[in-house]
Amino acid sequence: MNMMNDAYKVVNNDQMKQLDEKTIEEFKVSGLLLMERASLEVFSVSLELIRKHQLEEVVIFVGPGNNGGDGLAVARHLEAEGMDVKVLLLADPQSLRGDALENYHMLTCRKAMRVRKIEDLITALVGDMSKRLIIDALFGTGIQRPVEGEYIEAIRWINAQKSKILAIDIPSGVHGDTGKVMGEAVRATNTVAFQLPKVGNVSYPGAAYNGELKVVSIGIPRELIENSKVAAEMPTTQKMSGWLPQRPVDGHKGTFGTLLILGGVESYSGAGVMAAMAAQRSGVGLVKTAVRKSVNQVYEHSLPEVVTIPLEESPVNITNTTSQISEKGLQTIQHLAGSVNAVVAGPGWGNGDEWTGVLQGLISMENKPLLLDADALNLLKPMLDLLKERKLPAVLTPHPGEMSRLTGIDIEEINNNRVEVASQAAREWKAVVVLKGAGTVIASPEGDVMINNTGNAGMATAGSGDVLAGIIGALLAQGMNPYKAAVLGCWIHGKAGDIAAEKVGELSLIATDMIKEISQVMKKLFDSGKNS
User: How much is the pLDDT for 467?
Assistant: First the structure.
């Protein structure tokens, strides 16, 4: 993603509209001038693609709104440059208004071919479509209902071509506020977003339709952006290096905190082990694990630098060979949780009854930095009211399935509205919510939202969430506030996954590959912070 310095801010449709309106009203920049500036930026990218790929013709699909007006202006600039340009105007010219209508009138003075029906366009196109650039100016962020009629026909035709496809602002059919695909959407090879990325540009599934995303300035004053509310932000290396906990030269392991990881049953012992290994690489001074005595040996053999504490067990009943943590073991957990700087709870717990009381006790430690993952989240729903009473927000790291169980919202609806779902849950539960997935969303109770921009599809593998829990837990133990720890942890996790994918490929990536690369990410962040 190619972005400007201030483009880590992400806006929804209304926020972008307000920026446009304030630029026009307060800074006396006409809407026509803004459209001209925007179209010139698209024109510039179009020329780059034409020259790079030796393209011979441009086909522009124009819709009814300002996005269509941008397309009409781009057609004028390309025609003036001597390009062979064909425009499919799906909107009735009499329905055009304002700046879009002005650009239509200007284009009528040029030689660009204009047609109203896709059948006429197809008839006029002779030869290899791979030698043509298609520009999508159908909807932009204006779409509010599913695509239908001749527009869905146009989008399907565009997607069937072997052409380079350049979308203006956002691929048509992607909702700008959510990233939801409204039935069908243009699959662009390139997208030019104006001034700031929209939520739909960076939230999946819509983000997958961008191709290469470039964010360009159209002349909206920086001071206006800095003083305006935005829907979310995206982390940058510079920002993340500034958040990294300091390392005083006279520090010792106590200076950098102690993290307790409460692991689980034998079948899932790897979860707590990987969380501990990831935490060790993330700057924490000391990691302790507490698991059932029958599982502890696995931890001792796997984690030589970790303090492993066996929890006493008792049989469930006289005839049953299964066991659970004994009363003495539960008292050990309570003592340990009170003596460390942060707690990670849930990896590999299973569904034992004893965990309900453990979780209630942890949540009730209202000032203790606490991360709840995996099985802890599956036990959490009856305790959400207790969670709201904490003075220090807990960090919750649900994937969409766990989020669905906590909220009662369908997984599909969650994935189609990730920013709003995570934000609402964070406000309601008074917790930091990390909604995992492509473009992980991190939301604070105060309304801050970050959309993570590191990571890859290879990280969708067993143990990846345990690695993330360990990283965030380590940052919490070092004294970071919960929201910043969650954002930085997600960024480090994704970056480690990206480095690992470069070495082993996305198909072969496993969780321990990510752990191996955490040190590289931390070193680069640390060095960047020293040099800034």
Answer: 98
Query: Radius of gyration over alpha carbons of the chain, in Å?
Result: 27
Helix (H, G, I), strand (E, B) or coil at 376: helix
Please answer whether residues 465 and 399 qualify as being in contact, where contact means their C-beta atoms are separated by less than 8 angstroms: yes
List 194's β-bridge partners, or say none.
Answer: 216
CA distance 30 to 373: 51
Rounded average pLDDT over 248-270: 89
242 falls in which pLDDT band (50, 70, 90)?
A: very high
Where exactly are the structural domains of the chain?
9-233, 237-531
Other CB atoms within 10 A of residue 314 CB: 12
* CB count in 10 Å sphere of residue 120: 14
In this predicted structure, what is the pLDDT of residue 91?
A: 87
**How high is the pLDDT of residue 266?**
76
Give the Cα separation of 489 and 475 in Å (integer). Answer: 7
Per-residue model confidence (pLDDT) at position 446: 97
DSSP H helical ranges for 95-221: 98-107, 118-124, 149-160, 199-202
Confidence of residue 67 (pLDDT cuts 50, 70, 90): very high
Say how many C-beta atoms besides its own lie within 10 A of residue 436's C-beta.
Answer: 24
Tell me the two tokens of residue 37. Answer: 């500036």
The one-letter amino acid code at 329 reads G
Mean pLDDT, residues 494-521: 98
pTM over 0.85: yes
CATH superfamily of the 9-233 domain:
YjeF N-terminal domain (3.40.50.10260)
CA dihedral (51, 170, 24, 90) positive or negative: positive
Each as own residue / partner, the long-range contacts of residues 358-361 (CB below 8 Å, 24 or more positions apart, any chain) are 358/262, 358/325, 358/330, 358/333, 359/383, 360/386, 361/333, 361/334, 361/337
Residue 532 has pLDDT above 80, yes or no: no
Cα 194 to Cα 10: distance, rounded to the nearest angstrom: 11
CATH 3.20.19.10 for domain 237-531, yes or no, is no
Which three-class secondary structure string do you get for 471-530? Answer: HHHHHHHCCCCHHHHHHHHHHHHHHHHHHHHHHHCCCCCCHHHHHHHHHHHHHHHHHHHH
On the question of a common fold for 9-233 and 237-531, the answer reads: no
Tokens 């979780």 locate to: 359
The rounded distance, in Å, linking the Cα atoms of 505 and 500 is 7
pLDDT at 338 over 90: yes
